[in-house]
Amino acid sequence: MSDETLQPTTRVIRAIEDQIRAGRLKAHGQLPAIREIGADLGVGYNTVQAGLKDLRARGLVYSHKGKGSFVTEDALAILSGSAPSSTLQARVENLEGRVEDLERALAKVLERLGGTDGSAGQSSSPMSDADGQA
Questions:
Q1: Dihedral angle at the C-alpha atoms of 67, 70, 36, 43, nearest 10 degrees?
Q2: Of 60, 1, 68, 56, nearest to 32 (Cα)?
Q3: DSSP string covering 59-72
Q4: pTM above 0.70?
Q5: Measured between alpha carbons, how far is residue 74 from residues 24, 27, 79, 127 in Å?
Q6: Among 37, 72, 122, 134, which residue carries the largest CB count within 10 Å?
Q7: 13 and 55 in contact (C-beta within 8 Å)?
Q8: In 1-134, where do the E strands start and end?
């Protein structure tokens, strides 16, 4: 199947995977900007975002808000099917960073809503009240 007949998101994913396999994108190397990837492949911004989301979920890339996306340490091993156990650690670190980003965004929303003490919208969990344990 030629790349032209693939779904646009799949083309993005395959193009980045191919660059990793070929050594053009190395561990911790920065990917081109989203708009540049889109222009090179003839796809839109949201399509590139969807492709990067898939690559992140598979542990091939990680992103830092405002800095860009980067190839993970184990990306080549994941693609070749010989990923070491450190892949799980890399995914955990990626998720921790995303949680921190979400916590900052939530704090900004709460501040705008007037809940600067962080208590806005909090309620006790029925699970923790039932037996005194979380």
A1: -120
A2: 68
A3: TSEEEETTTEEEE-
A4: no
A5: 15, 7, 9, 38
A6: 72
A7: yes
A8: 61-64, 68-71
53, HSE (Cβ side, Cα atoms, 13 Å):
7
Question: What is the percent of the chain with per-residue pLDDT over 90, rounded to a whole number?
Answer: 54
Residue pLDDT, tens place only, 67-117 = 999 999 889 888 888 766 566 677 777 788 888 889 999 999 999 998 655
Q: Is the pLDDT of residue 40 over 80?
A: yes
CA distance 28 to 14: 19
Residues in the chain: 134
As given in the structure block, the two tokens for residue 58 are 């598979």
Burial tier of 123 (Cβ tally within 10 Å: 0-12, 13-18, 19+): exposed
Distance linking the first and last C-alpha atoms of the chain = 51
